[in-house]
Amino acid sequence: MNPQDVWITFPELLVWFPLLAGLVCFLFKDNSKVKSWVLLASILTLCISFASLYFSDDAKYLALNKASYTLKYMNNGSFILGLDGMGRLLTLLTAFAFPIIFVATYNTPYKSAKNFYGLMLLAQSGLMGVFTAMDAMSFYFFWELALIPVYFLSSQWGGEKRIQATFKFFVYTFAGSLLMLIGIIYVYLHTININGNGHSFALYAFAGVRLNPTEQNWLFWLFFIAFAIKMPIFPFHTWQPDAYEQAPTATTMVLSGIMVKMGLFACLRWLLPIFPQATIKFDTIIIGLSVIGMLYASIIALKQDDLKRLVAYSSIAHIGLMCAGIFTKTEVGLQGVMLQMFCHGINIIGLWIVIELIERQTGVRKISQLGGVAHKAPILTILLVVTALANIALPLTNAFIGEFMLFNGLFAFNKWYAAAAGISIILAAVYTLNMIQKVFYGEENSITTAIKEIALHEKIILSVVVVLIFMMGVYPQPMINLTKGTVEALMLKFN
After folding, report:
1. How far is 87 from 109, CA to CA, in rounded Å?
2. 117, 242: one domain
């Protein structure tokens, strides 16, 4: 096959296929058949993502890995989609996550199921667009496209307090998006197209823009606040526990497993290359906020009785470590971030699956109301224990290598920050093991007596998660090789 002869590229397929599949969902008259459709569509998207890994030689398959369209917005611009190593990693995570989510929640009933699943696929399309966008305008478009379906999913299918939680989520993210849009327009007006055709939204044009230190400083914060809200990190985190608690679990999986990675990805893709001087100036502040957030979230998690809120605060702590790793500006730290983005996504989705299975059978999420689950569902218990231990970075699990790299980078930056971050890891082990002991190995009660072993398809999907945990824990090199080029390109900005 000659790459120059293709009419459609992998970035296009990853964006447009789930978008069209999601729109088809709304046309279904039979809600029961839509589940099979979305599962098929998500599996095909996963196949496309795997194919993009095979055709990863940019020199040979450039036409397959990049698409560009000329659009008439503002004065001059381009709509560019592309796949580098980091893009492939996160599109693969997104492609993996959705079939896992759909299988795990297959037996969960939803009112107007066609609308629910249609919005889920639209969210996947938006996420794919964010991770493949190579110009600022398409990046902003997909950033918002990913947000809108999640807003409706949470507000329509969430818990009793879903309206308040969703409104808070919307206000935070909308405010951040507005700040980012102001920054995008300002940088755009200071770009010079490489061909001399005027301004450009292209990433290469933004990375080459000349800004004085004062401009870099205030623009840095416009972009960073938007990204920090999406992650989120302290003190922009307050929307997250409420949103996670009230959103339907399938949506929470998307939020915590994938959507929070948008903020981390955006820092790597846009913040560091465009504002290197400001990044160096404010790195201590950002890492300080990240470490404070890790400690704060870990302490709060110790007191949580709700499983969803416990996992939410655990996620804040992990994201804080990844954010700190970005601003160490070390090769090992950046490599650890990219590896950990994928591993954390897999682990946290596994934890949410277990919570969904427990809540579906018992109707409760309170740790104090559960106990003795291991006696009724031993296989579920084993799979949960492995996933939980991976989440606290036990050696031979996938998160260990990434966190080791992150701490290495953080120690090289500042040993006291590394020590403080290490305390949060100890606290994570405490609240995770406490949760396992109380929920699975505590005494049975009237609620947990009725628990049964999980179904075959649920065992299979959790087993897939566990296999990925051990595979990446034992042999992470393919993922490291995949993102090596992106790390090296970023380091050129600071060497």
Report:
1. 34
2. yes
